Amino acid sequence: MQRRSNAYHISVLAVLMAIVIIQNIVPFFGYIPLPGLSITTIHVTVILAAVVLGPRDGAIIGGAWGIIAWIRAFVAPTSPLAPIVFTNPLISVIPRILVGLIAGWVFIWFQKRHQKVLGMTLAGVAGALTNTILVLGLIGLLYSHQAAGFYQVNLSKLMPYLLTIVASNGIPEAILAGILTPLIGTPLLRFKK
């Protein structure tokens, strides 16, 4: 039984890792480019890894996403701002690792209280917002002049502008993750048993 459980664990980890790689390579699958920004869908895969396999494996999948985003910033950036900011691992890697950790911890907390579906929904929302808030917050903190120039806003208006992106971009990403995580995670958890 333990071998079967380990095989399931490794299989799901490998499939989710492959999905993250595909989402980073196939256009419009992991990043949907819009003028000035790109909507991310990869966080859903990281959150699912955290819910189904635990925070550690969620962090591994998130770390893979971050490393791929870091490499892409050098060779095939997803936006004109990416080569400036995502070449810094504090922005490209660390927030993505934290997506897996935070989503996994949120799910575990609710699972212990026998609220799996609510836990999956809130893990999805928390994971998505972790990515959006940390990435945009670090861009505003570490690259304020470059970001203000890129977004063509006065430096004093950069933070309100970034908060607008959180609202217009981050909230839809959080809603998407909050809906998809229980829809996909419930059957995966059932199969895990």
TrEMBL record:
The keyword ATP-binding does not apply. It comes from the Bacteria. The chain crosses the membrane at residues 7-26, 32-53, 60-78, 90-110, 117-141, 161-184. Gene3D superfamilies: 1.10.1760.20. GO terms for molecular function: transmembrane transporter activity. Pfam families: ECF_trnsprt. InterPro entries: ECF_trnsprt_substrate-spec (IPR024529). Keywords: Membrane, Transmembrane, Transmembrane helix. This is Substrate-specific component PanT of predictedpantothenate ECF transporter. It comes from Lactiplantibacillus plantarum (Lactobacillus plantarum).
